[in-house]
Design a protein that fits this description.
The structure holds two protein chains of two kinds. By secondary structure, chain A is of the alpha/beta class. Helices cover 49% and strands 13% of the residues of chain A. The chains are: A alpha/beta, B alpha/beta. At the A-B interface, helix 2, strand 1, helix 5, helix 9 and strand 9 of A face helix 2, helix 3, helix 4, helix 10 and strand 5 of B.
Chain lengths: 317, 377
């Protein structure tokens, strides 16, 4: 018989949009109305939010900033091929269980085969005391509401997606030996995907959806200013113009916002305040922008036109 | 009278009609998402159309494509600016039934009983029988094109499901899992009576697609890509290239290849191009730049081309032999083969045939079905 450990799911009062927007702004996350609406609905409807988009556009950062903005604990599950229930949900601490058996056998009379005694022993072995809580179980069992980030779900196997369905739809999980655990407080669940593999319809159906594209130039400038407060204004404009142009060139690994930030940071570190001033010095930082040999070759071939783009952007400003 | 979400029936009806419109345009607007949409409407979003739009978009969209198409449908429905771009084409084809059905798809009234009946008639088995043997190049009617697209999608979806089932069965295995066996032994006080086994993890095949986008292949390439994209999305490791006079990297993962992107790629690649297809030199480029990284002993190379090359057949055979030696198998799909028999003497393909594991066609639905058996074997 399954024991139901259900407790009241106290839904927290969702923040209104304005306070959510300003809280995220304080964390340095530049957002827009559509994303604010999605995050608001995540809390108001109590449904998980699936965020898709290219690598480096700030999907993971949403969960981090949301957790900080709301003063909640962030529990992160990084998905990978072969991830299974033992690593994501729970596992039994069988070493401790073995020790407990050894201890018990020393205190037992030899030849004691009393079924009642053995039964109570087994019940003790399969109790919460011997349970190792993995990220998903921690999120369900937490007294305080948490932000649960299931990162790069597309890297996990399809079987793992099936495991998630119960948690995502009912915020509960079943442990055969103990029963069903219901969430004590509804976690804010954010799943991210880079679109490496198609996710199942069942998973998508259980989630709200948000797609993040590469930001327009103005927004990207805002992001850089927000994340790198000391950056020169000219450099911001040039970096964004350069990267925006680079994204249209069909690179194998298109640079995202994360790469723009890394590059801007690297340029500041080597003392470049103007891309056009010292191209040789600038070229030493290209490794922040491109990640394959072919892309690097393309970048070196096309850098003249890219500088031109950066120069035009600066003049138009 | 108010419903349980606290909204007047007219709002509820409008949202349900909007959901019907979305469903008719292939959005997954199921009862659960309609319920969520009604809850969103009850969250003070009705006074601001933008808030409602963002909320409904998060609720009804499940893919990037739907995300991009949503705004157009939203504006069309809520601001009564409904029009159907393909209407003229369908009318010119003289198919009134399909025209009315397509209009409904945009207008959003496809949920009535008469319309459901009409749609079920349209998508009945009779059409499949009629179209199944038709060569794709003879399908001009927009309605029939749409049907073919649908059949191709369904076919690929079925094959994908079958493959997933097969993989699961094959993965049930027989290697002893020490950790789990010890864990299992706890109930026997540490004595290992009951062995546990590791699931066998089969090394999944990887695919490389080389797609000929010369004009002669245009009709078939679109459908072939649609089919392959669906079918092979089950595999994580796949990579696609297109070629005409040079090799174009379409990227990793077939599922990222949307038709619109593909057409854009073809258009970009064809600009300023005069002369014949250079298959051998494109393959040489592939061998030089990507062979080492992408082709392993478990890789299947799928070539989709008619073999019409400006280089000599011997030069082409030389390049094919390079990747054929490295790959598990090379499947050459020639849609023009549907017009001839496999054994028909073709001087262009004769030197190549000994190097190929399979040489097949894909000009109609049965040939696609045969191809999927080979691909998943």
């Amino acid at each position: 018989m399954k024991i139901n450990h259900s407790t009241d799911r106290s839904d927290t009062e969702p923040h209104n949009r304005e306070s959510l927007a300003s809280a995220l702004q304080q964390q340095g996350y530049v957002t827009d109305n559509a994303l604010i609406s999605s995050l608001y609905l995540l809390q108001a409807l109590g449904k998980p939010l699936l965020v898709e988009g290219e690598a480096g556009v700030g999907k993971t950062e949403i969960a981090k900033c949301l957790a900080q903005a709301q003063g909640r604990k962030l529990i992160r599950l990084q998905c990978y091929e072969g991830l299974d229930a033992q690593h994501a949900l729970y596992d039994w601490d069988y070493q401790r269980q073995l020790l407990a058996i050894q201890m018990a056998s020393k205190t037992d009379q030899p030849g004691n085969t009393n079924s009642e005694h053995n039964g109570s022993n087994a019940a003790t072995l399969y109790s919460e005391e011997f349970l190792l809580k993995r990220p998903l179980f921690s999120a369900i069992a937490s007294e305080e509401p948490v932000v649960l980030l299931i990162d790069e779900i597309d890297r996990a196997d399809q079987e793992f997606e099936a495991l998630l369905l119960e948690i995502l739809s009912d915020f509960q999980m079943s442990i055969p030996e103990l029963g069903t655990f219901k969430a004590r407080s509804t976690p804010s669940v954010i799943l991210t995907s880079n679109g490496i593999r198609e996710l199942s319809d069942a998973l998508r159906r259980r989630c709200l959806y948000h797609y993040i594209d590469y930001p327009p130039a103005e927004k990207e400038q805002q992001i850089i200013r927000s994340r790198l407060p000391g950056i020169d204004e000219n450099l911001t404009v040039q970096v964004v113009a350069y990267v925006q142009k680079l994204r249209t060139m069909g690179l194998r690994k298109t640079p995202g916002v994360a790469e723009s930030l890394d590059w801007a940071k690297a340029l500041m570190a080597v003392g470049v305040n103007d891309l056009l001033a010292d191209p040789t010095l600038t070229e030493t930082t290209f490794s922040c922008l491109v990640k394959t040999r072919n892309d690097l070759a393309l970048l070196e071939r096309e850098h003249a036109s890219l500088y031109e783009q950066a120069s035009d952007a600066e003049q138009n400003r | 009278m108010q419903n349980r979400t606290g909204k007047t029936p007219s709002v509820t009806n409008r949202i349900q009609e909007f959901a019907q419109l979305l469903r008719a345009n292939a959005f997954p607007a199921n009862p659960s998402s309609i319920h969520d949409a009604l809850r969103i409407a009850s969250l003070n979003t009705l006074h601001d159309h933008r808030l409602l739009q963002h909320g409904l978009r998060a609720c009804f969209c499940k893919t990037p494509q739907q995300w991009n198409n949503f705004d157009k449908l939203y504006v069309a429905f809520w601001k009564n600016e409904i029009s159907y771009e393909g209407e003229t084409d369908a009318e010119s084809a003289g198919n009134s039934a399909s025209t009315s059905s397509m209009q409904q798809r945009m207008v959003g009234f496809a949920g009535t009983s008469s319309d459901t009946e009409l749609q079920s008639n349209i998508y009945g088995s009779g059409d499949y029988s009629a179209l199944s043997l038709a060569d794709f190049r003879f399908v001009f009617n927009p309605y029939e094109k749409q049907l073919i697209d649908r059949y191709v999608d369904e076919l690929a979806q079925r094959c994908k499901r079958r493959h997933i089932k097969r993989t699961r069965i094959a993965n049930s295995g027989s290697r002893v899992a020490v950790k789990q066996s010890i864990k299992q032994s706890l109930r026997y006080q540490g004595n290992v009576f009951d062995l546990k086994f590791h699931a066998k993890r089969k090394k999944l095949p990887s695919f490389v697609l080389l797609l000929d986008i010369s004009q002669s292949m245009d009709v078939y390439a679109r459908l072939f890509l649609r089919f392959t994209r669906k079918l092979l999305s089950v595999f994580d490791t796949s990579h696609a290239f297109a070629f005409n006079i040079e090799l174009i990297d379409l990227g990793k993962g077939f599922h990222t290849l949307e038709e619109s992107d593909f057409e854009q790629t073809i258009n970009n690649a064809s600009q300023g191009w005069i002369g014949g297809t250079r298959i051998a030199s494109s393959f040489a480029q592939f061998n030089e730049q990507h062979l080492g990284a992408l082709v392993k002993s478990h890789t299947t190379i799928l070539v989709f081309s008619d073999g019409c090359d400006t280089d000599t057949p011997e030069a082409l055979a030389e390049q094919v032999s390079i990747f054929a030696n490295r790959a598990r198998r090379v499947i050459w799909v020639n849609p023009l083969l549907g017009r001839l028999s496999v054994d028909h003497p073709d001087s262009r393909m004769t030197p190549l045939k000994p190097l190929l594991t399979h040489y097949v066609s894909s000009h109609n639905l049965p040939s696609l079905l045969a191809l999927q058996r080979i691909l998943l074997s």
